[in-house]
């Protein structure tokens, strides 16, 4: 059987993207001095496997690109890593921290140090210590080398190919409905570590927290927070697992023996970051991301996928940037889109969402605004004229919905759905045309375009853009 590299790394993620922090209750485990498990893999293997899996993870999940949130999470993460007990530091491990724009309350870490924290987790935490608790637990899995230790126990061959084979089997088997994210051939599964490993990560996590200046009981408190919010968007994963009462008690028991060194004072930063995140448009769930099948080229040096498919574009940023155009239009668009165009029309498009074809500018993703002189003062008739003129340059253009009334900038407007086969890409694209009249009778229009297969990922951005339109002619 031939597996391409992507499938392999996906399996690796499946094997390593393991955070059962919420899933497993804990049996009493009196020892608090932890030791590394026997492990057939080298430190270098951890690093290499983690890197491969991280590159794949960053293609599967949209990262939140907000420098303030990013640097804040990094500061907390680096503080925890600096507090790692010396016996669990490994040469070459590089911890780094990324925020995934997903609403589920979750986080995972990969061998060697890459850590991914869902935006939903930061929004759910009641204070910095709770967020730091989950990160400390994850860092503990990495430091204890749980990924490769579990692979060592579970397989016959001490080779990387062995890990891949095992991971394949695990994927094939039941991974627990709650832990499973099924996609269109993009299966990503969050597997569980053993109960023993989870306890260890809780204990080492609590120890790291105390050494870093956090109250280790905040890790336990996070379980309550998760439990309280566990229904809704989290896919109900708590419903299929018992309450984490025992873990809660076990962490608090451990906390009695720990002295918090140089307690951290609340700087108010956590509250600021949280407020900022809550101001963004809602994040998709991990399941929705997997279902969309979209891939997200990562930015960082060193892990950029060589085989990134061309024409794929980044998920629209949740941050918006305002523009003034034509002297009378104000509009906000995702800040990872670029402005293009001329005096008659302006385009906002993500990198990769525009190009040239037969010396003509071609757009596959984004929005355009423009003004059209029309003969008719009737909005519907004027809109129909515009569609007819668009159809002359786009032979595959078809009207796919009836005209619908809406308001744009407080004015009566019309919306109509169109489909087109893009001549350059041969892809079917979904187009929404929205029109209203300017004071002088001219037709003002907004065109929103995305390939049909990706249209759903752009809907909420298009709606936000439409709502932000202000006309002052
Ligand atoms: Zn865990």
Summarize the structure.
The protein contains 14 helices and 18 strands. It has 473 residues and is an alpha+beta fold.
Give a quick set of tags describing it.
alpha+beta; three-stranded mixed β-sheet; disordered N terminus; 473 residues; binds zinc ion; Protein Transport Mog1p, Chain A
Mean pLDDT: 76
Give the helix level as a range of percent: 25-40%
Number of strands: 18
Unreliable residue runs: 1-5, 14-31, 155-191, 231-243, 298-310
Shape: elongated
Number of domains: 2
The rounded distance between the terminal residues' Cα atoms is: 64 Å
Largest sheet: 8 strands, antiparallel
Structural class: alpha+beta
Amount of beta strand: 15-25%
**C-alpha Rg (nearest Å):** 25 Å
Bound molecules: zinc ion
Enumerate how many helices there are, as a single number: 14
Structure description:
The chain is of the alpha+beta class and 473 residues long. The protein folds into two domains: 5-292, no CATH class; 320-471, Mog1/PsbP, alpha/beta/alpha sandwich (Protein Transport Mog1p, Chain A, 3-Layer(aba) Sandwich). 38% of the residues lie in helices and 20% in strands. It contains 14 helices and 18 strands. It has helices at 5-16, 43-60, 67-82, 119-124, 128-143, 146-154, 160-172, 195-212, 217-228, 245-255, 269-279, 286-292, 379-393, 455-468, and strands at 96-100, 107-109, 114-118, 180-181, 188-189, 320-325, 329-334, 337-341, 345-350, 354-357, 360-363, 366-372, 398-399, 404-408, 411-421, 428-437, 443-451, 470-471. The strands form five sheets. Strands 8, 9, 12, 13, 14, 15, 16 and 17 form an eight-stranded antiparallel beta sheet that branches. The radius of gyration is 25 Å and the shape is elongated. The termini are far apart. The model is unreliable at 1-5, 14-31, 155-191, 231-243 and 298-310 (pLDDT under 50). Bound molecules: zinc ion. Zinc ion is lined by residues 19-21, 137, 141, 193, 198, 201.
